[in-house]
Amino acid sequence: MSTNASAANVAELTPLRELSARIGSDPLLTQASTGNSSIKLEGVLWIKASGSWMADAINEDILIPLDLAEVKERVKQKLDPAERYARASIETAMHAVLPHRVVLHVHCVNTIAWAVRQDAPVQLERQLDGLRWQWISHVPSGLPLAWKIARVLSASADTDVLVLGNHGLVIGGDDCGAVEDLLSQVEQRLALCPRQPDRTDYAALAEIVDGSSWDLPDDDEVHALGTDAISRAVLSGGLLYPCQSIFSNSSTPGLFRSVPCPNPRDPWERQYRTRPFLIIEGCGVIVRRTMTPAQRAMMSGLAQVIQRVSSSALLRYLTEEEVANSFSMIASRYRELANASRYSSAR
Ligand SMILES: [Zn+2]
Q1: Which among 1, 7, 223, 338 could bridge 284 via Cys, Cβ 3.0 to 4.6 Å?
Q2: Spacing, Cα 141 to ligand 1 middle (Å)
Q3: Residue 197 vs residues 200, 231, 281, 284: alpha-carbon distances, Å
């Protein structure tokens, strides 16, 4: 069948574009080009293009049309549709296997703060009681995630909320209104209060970055990664979700371990020359000027997640194998998008 857009089809895309833009502009729901949305219309899967930002959904053509039957056939044959259609979202297979007309996937910080706990399925049972939800323990994005979801749905066909371990949230519904309502219900139930970090030492940070190739982050809340002792302990234990590894371009937690406050007179720039950012114990965070808007947005998301992770919870960090899997499969795509940053000429 043809994937040419009929006028009626295009008109029906408007609510999804509006919903995507609203969600994309809330950094607690999605950061940079993470997250994706889709609608199935007359045999066509309209899905967010890889690397585009949901926040741009009104002003840019972020949705691309794919032949739904063809995508499903590929998934059945264990071929990842994201590899066949160059611009398709990495989660195209997941959107195709979900039966819902409208599907939304977000990296909402409240959900992730629950989804990194070892006891997440038990805790969520309580929080999401009464909703038609399922827990999906961590698997890499793309085909493995789609297959796992298809298996879970074959036993619980009426599911419309999926919590993805060490990853995020998926909501499905008949229309954009239903999906947005359900998202707000889940958000309310999973809402967590961020810890109040100690004060950022702006004077010390300003002295360190003065005359260097480093800068302070635009988002003041990122400093909590360095000023909050619980956050520092959480970060030092490992990587909690794939985007953490992707924006830092690192498959180990080393970059996220705090360092003592450098003396501006020491050759600290040389010492940390390979790092994109420095988490400075008790002071805050500094970032390289070359950090892209996408990396900065994902770092802000990380700070919001970590500030919500309970100090008493046992955490389930990604295993080395999981990090390596996710990293090799999606890092190149995310790097592309990190470079083609939202506010650069490469748009
Ligand atoms: Zn995701």
Answers
A1: 223
A2: 7
A3: 8, 9, 12, 10
